[in-house]
Amino acid sequence: MSAGLAGVAQAQPTSLTIALAAEPTAADPHYHKMTANDAFSAHVYDSLVARNAKMELVPSLALSWKNLDDQTWEFKLRPGVKFSNGQPFTSQDVLFTICRTLNNETNVSQSYMDTTKRITDVKTPDDLTVIIKTEEPLPLLPAEMARNLPIISASIVQHGKLQFAPKTGCGVTSAWPTVTDFNSGKLAIGTGPFLMKSYVKGTGIQLERNEHYWGEKPHWKTVKMVPVPSAGPRLTGLLSGDYDVIENPAARDLARVKENPKFAFVATPSTRLVFLQPDIARNPSPFVKSADGKNPLQDLRVRKAMNMAIDRKAIVQRIMDGMATPAFQYMPDGMFGALPKAPEIKFDPEGAKKLLAEAGYPNGFELTLSSTNDRYVNDSQVAQAVAQYFTRVGIKTSVDAMTASIYFPKRAKREFSLPMGGWPAETGEASALFQLWIASLDSPKGQGTSNYGGYTNPEFDKVYLAAANTVDAAKRKKGLEAATQMALDAVPLIPLHFESSIWAFRKGLTYEGRRDQYTLATSVKVKN
Amino acid sequence: MLVFILRRLVQSLFVLLAVSVVVFFAVYAVGDPIELLVSPEASVADRQAMIERLGLDLPVWLQYTGFLTRALHGDLGTSFVHGIPAIELIVQRIPATMELVFVAISLTIIIGIPLGLIAGLKNDKPTGRGLMAGSVLGFSLPNFWQGMVLILCFAVWLHWLPAAGRGDTVTVLGVPLSLLTADGWSHVMLPAINLSLANIALVLRLTATGVVDAKTQEYVKFARAKGLRPRRILTRHILRNILIPVVTVIGMEFGSLIAYSTITETVFAWPGMGKLLIDSIYQLDRPVVVAYVMLVTFIFVMINMLVDMLYAALDPRVQLQASE
User: Fold this and answer.
1) Mutate to test the interface with B, among A182, A405, A414, A441 (most CBs of B within 10 A)
2) Beta bridge partners of A226
3) Which entry of A247, A415, A510, B225 is 20 to 30 Å from A392 by CA?
4) Which phi and psi (to 5°) does residue A52 adopt?
5) Do the chains contact at A237 and B44, CB–CB below 8 Å?
């Protein structure tokens, strides 16, 4: 066997097998807004703007972009790019792609329209220029282009002259492509580094290098992605040599990888925040029992006490095996709109007890913490630990952990008093978190739709909204930082930690871990 | 024979109808799939549009009658998660599962019955006692644990066989088959052994007790007195008589392996139907769960019918028409 390994070291193979923890639900790049789907799309399709491993925006199919005014963006496209069917990439394809997301009957979540439905006009003055107008200032348009709009080819439908008229079909004369057309590979035509050879649900995806790719060509001629949802089989598959790279090995199993000189791993802090969401709106709240019959979670001092009662560092070390970062604010330090460096929330059980007494609960109260047990890394153990910390300062806390498919609908109906949640800041800035989780509920505007705690603060809403609509980056950053500080002071969410994403692989390879948790074959390199 | 088959088909229609009611309402009670499908970023209007498109806004009985009408036209619903017909999703997985089950059942028959005969014929010798004692291990050790030990020994330590997944396939008449390639066989061996161990033990024990029982029967003694060769006694007289319970058990196991080899498929990441069922339950993909259970019920009914017909072939005294 050692001879076999030596052979491998001499001539690096050009085929790669990756075991995925979560499988894309379709090969259609506009079908389902999920990390697994978007990571897969990134192999076959390009967006106008891309994000590097640190989630900074970098040019992709667009070489540059700028504001013409607050509601108008101009994208200059990369010349000389061809789709895998040989058609040249032009501004028409961008227009067609935007229209397709607005005319997509077969998508599951309409998230790919989130951006495009706020577009009021798209102009294509020449083949390499796209001008996009939005109904209101949309500073995040380039960032959203990076995650919401993989570009497909207009040549996959019959069309006359294309123009931005989504209601009447934009000039497309044949049927719009469906999810099945992409799954079968018939219309899986992109400009990305790989071509899709086959996509069989449950079995895997086969990719082949796109020899005409405009960018740096990947080392791998063929790539196989196999879905292996359970962590045990994924790891054994790596150890036995079936897989070259695996996603998310269980943190507790990493010791086996560390000991073994034939394997290596990389752990990258992600933006996924795990947090608690106290029920602030209701009095009384279903799972809180206090002596005076009120809901103590409404008292800021109580929330602050809970914040101080948790030893985040201990949780990260003992339960997360070091594969997480303690969270003292809602986004990792230094990300756009987050504080450059959040002051540590000190673990102070005595101080917490004092605050509780001040708030009128010297003997504490009773509480149920609700959490998933199969959604976030070690979620139910984390919940147990937090409950013990609360109990230690006098808040008698029990844990109710359940499977995600039961938990999420219950949380949406607001059946909990203290749910645990997780959320990745995919746009790379703080505004989306504020919009969904902290802003007051305003459904038509899509605001506060995940604000299950019912926190409301008109002052905060004003500050955050003003910032979110500011196109000037420096000003927006300041505004978002101010909003972050306001939120931290009011504790609408109790932050716990940011999960790390882990990749393990065989020796001889390297992987650049990504903050957005994407697993990309292009990022798997051969070590020299 | 024809009457028997027709009657069975009518019966199975009623069984399917009853199963559809139970499954549909049970799955409905579990939870609301919309929260898993729509991202937290979706606005209330988008969420509502989704709910309406999936028909989740209708009262449950209307959803059921709608399902039934479509089912009569051969449409068992569209997967919420994958957006394609549920039946297509299941059918894509059938070849993988059938291969696995086929190999497992073959191993069961090839190994279980001969070993059972030996154990039965030599039931008072160390060989027989050893086989009977060993077989206890076969079904008393948990299935997933056996699977993990197999992986540890043969994949991680010895590197003889791959630990997970399905091997290269060759497409025959549009069906991807892995049993035509060496790589395919190397992948199927461990999960198939994992699936068959308990069944081998079961069949071994059934055969052995049958043989022990038959050895003392008058007709065997008579045959022996007539001076027939032991081999002929074994194959013509003993085996034929003890096979009926064995065939029943193999038939039933065949069905449950197809439908519920979930644990093995999970441990070995085998892309079969069992894994699809588990994934669909986790994702509350109602149409797939319902279609799956309907299909599996149908398979069970069919297998039972085949088993009954095999009885008749094995034992001419069994009259199919009279089986009411």
Assistant:
1) A405
2) A19
3) A415
4) -85, -175
5) no
Distance CA A60, CA A77 (A): 9
Amino acid at A472: D
A46: exposed, middle or buried (Cβ count in 10 Å: 0-12, 13-18, 19+): buried
pLDDT digits (tens, 9 = 90+) for A65-116: 999 998 999 999 999 999 999 999 999 999 999 999 999 888 877 778 878 8
Select the more confidently predicted residue: A6 or B116.
B116
Instruction: Give me the residue label for tokens 């020796």.
Output: A507
Q: Is A528 exposed, middle or buried (0-12, 13-18, 19+ CB in 10 A)?
A: exposed
| pLDDT at residue B41, rounded to an integer | 60
Instruction: Quick: pLDDT tens for B256-265.
Output: 888 778 888 8
What is residue B32's three-state secondary structure?
Answer: coil
DSSP string computed for A427-486: TSBTHHHIIIIISPPBGGGTBSTT-TT----HHHHHHHHHHHT--SHHHHHHHHHHHHHH
Paired sense of beta strands A15-20 and A222-227, if any: parallel
**Nearest chain A residue (CA) to B93:** A202
**Closest listed residue to residue B204, CA positions, set B75, B114, B97:** B114
Query: Which tokens is A57 given?
Result: 């925006």
Quote the CA–CA distance of A59 and A68 in Å, as a whole number.
Answer: 18
Residues ≥6 apart with Cβ < 8 Å to A407: A370, A371, A372, A375, A419
Instruction: Kindly list the residues from chain B whose CB atom is less than 8 angstroms away from the CB atom of residue A224.
Output: none
H or E element that contains A390: helix A379-392
Task: State ipTM.
Answer: 0.75
Beta-carbon contacts of residue B256 (< 8 Å; ≥ 6 apart): none
Q: Three-state SS for B80?
A: coil
Residue A499: C-alpha distances to residues A311, A317, A327, A337 (Å): 16, 12, 10, 20
Cα angle at B296 between B113 and A26, to 5 degrees?
Answer: 120
> Which chain A residues are closer than 8 Å to B266 by Cβ?
230, 233
Give the integer Cα–Cα distance in Å for B56 and B48: 10
Alpha-carbon distance A329 to A480, whole Å?
13
A271 contacts: CB under 8 Å, gap ≥ 6? A55, A331, A332, A335, A424, A425, A426, A428, A498, A515, A516
B30 and A109 in contact by Cβ < 8 A?
A: no
Q: Computed over its alpha carbons, how large is the radius of gyration of chain B?
A: 24
